């Protein structure tokens, strides 16, 4: 075990975690919203414990003061453990407990113990999922806002090109005419629907399990603690939180997180489909569809001068693959809960954090660096309109489908409709 530095606030349990879990990916401190929300759980618990007679005023005030320092970013380097670790989040909980206890002891001039005082009336079993729920409720707002920005950008494009005709296609074959405005309004509607679905998927997280302590029994928590703690959390976070209707269920079953992951995956898949469509319609400029153009962002080749690639649509598509993989990680972790507790929460939180960050990056880049500069001025848009089958559809309504097909197919019996 390493010798503590002079300014080190964390203690033995954090040191053990550092030794047991090699760093792969994020540290606890690198997910600042989670540290902040975990500290808010501790502040709410301290105030509830003071009201219930578990903590004296001096220790409660010191824990709150220490927590406010952490929230202000004064001790960011004191949370070095890997975000993903074994033990159902116990190392994360103890890292927070130890930092707050050490700093509170210094502020109060009396001993503040990480378990007896900072963790009073709590277990990792209820404090970790509460902090996780608060973090997800906070972080999900970013991709929702980015998706809505993308939807609004498509709506502006729909207005700009409301009267611009282009060739519609089915099975990648010529079909009938529609306007660019029609296409963009459909894209806007799809993105907006997915934004709403992602926002709604997190609603269940407003019911938090504080007071459940070990496996949901509430053992070790005084009468009225859960209600007081959640009331304090409402005031500290601004979220409309309630106590979990069934505390045992809230610890054993994490399916709401699978729903959030799935909603993120759906949004990514929809965005990727639209990005792929724009990539295809901009293909060329001479040998492809050439219906529209997208902004040229960088050189597309190290050997072919003048070549430009659809880098933003391809970026969106690649991030969608990673998002779908992270959603599957959430599914696996949710299914891995055993008996009274699901201890796979750290990897669920890590995966959802990646989903939200990738969705935000993809939607913002797509909106600002591709769709905003898109134009239906491709080299072949007007030429491609010559392949539209509108007149044949109208003629078939009068003369019959088989008769018109026979007259216009390139070979006897061939149907060019694609539909």
TrEMBL record:
Residues 7-325 form the Fumarate lyase N-terminal domain. This is Aspartate ammonia-lyase. Coiled coil: none annotated. GO terms for cellular component: cytosol. Signal peptide: none annotated. The keyword Lyase applies. It holds the Pfam family Lyase_1. PROSITE patterns: FUMARATE_LYASES. GO terms for biological process: aspartate metabolic process. It comes from Tamaricihabitans halophyticus. The keyword Lipid biosynthesis does not apply.
């Amino acid at each position: 075990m390493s010798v503590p530095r002079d300014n080190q606030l964390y203690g033995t349990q954090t040191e053990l975690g550092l030794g047991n879990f090699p760093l792969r990916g994020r540290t606890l401190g690198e997910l600042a919203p989670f540290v902040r929300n975990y500290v808010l759980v501790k502040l709410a618990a301290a105030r509830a414990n003071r009201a219930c007679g578990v903590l004296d005023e001096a220790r409660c005030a010191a824990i709150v003061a220490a927590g406010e320092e952490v929230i202000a970013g004064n001790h960011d380097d004191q949370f070095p453990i890997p975000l993903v670790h074994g033990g159902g989040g116990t190392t994360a909980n103890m890292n927070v407990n130890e930092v707050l206890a050490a700093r509170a002891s210094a502020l109060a001039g009396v001993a503040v113990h990480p378990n007896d005082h900072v963790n009073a009336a709590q277990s990792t079993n209820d404090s970790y999922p509460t902090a996780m729920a608060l973090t997800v409720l906070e972080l999900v707002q970013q991709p929702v806002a980015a998706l809505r920005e993308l939807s609004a950008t498509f709506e502006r494009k729909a207005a700009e090109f409301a009267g611009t005709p282009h060739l519609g296609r089915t099975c990648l074959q010529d079909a009938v005419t529609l306007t660019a405005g029609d296409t963009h309004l459909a894209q806007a509607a799809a993105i907006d629907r997915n934004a709403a679905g992602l926002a709604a998927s997190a609603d269940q997280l407003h019911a938090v399990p504080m007071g459940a302590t070990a496996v949901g029994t509430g053992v070790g928590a005084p009468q009225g603690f859960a209600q007081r703690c959640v009331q304090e959390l409402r005031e500290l976070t601004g979220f409309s939180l309630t106590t979990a209707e069934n505390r045992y269920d809230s610890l054993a079953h994490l399916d709401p997180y699978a729903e959030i992951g799935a909603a993120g995956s759906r949004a990514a898949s929809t965005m990727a489909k639209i990005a792929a469509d724009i990539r295809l319609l901009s293909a060329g400029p001479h040998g492809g569809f050439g219906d529209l153009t997208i902004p040229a962002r960088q050189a597309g080749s190290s050997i072919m001068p003048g070549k430009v690639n659809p880098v933003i649509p391809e970026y969106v598509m690649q991030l969608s693959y990673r998002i779908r993989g992270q959603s599957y990680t959430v599914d696996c972790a949710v299914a891995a809960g055993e008996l009274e507790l699901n201890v796979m929460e750290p990897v669920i939180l890590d995966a959802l954090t990646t989903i939200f960050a990738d969705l935000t990056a993809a939607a913002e880049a797509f909106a600002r660096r591709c769709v905003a500069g898109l134009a239906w001025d491709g080299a072949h848009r007007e030429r491609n309109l010559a392949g539209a089958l509108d007149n044949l559809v109208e003629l078939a309504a009068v003369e019959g489908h088989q008769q018109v097909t026979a007259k216009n197919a390139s070979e006897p019996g061939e149907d060019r409709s694609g539909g």
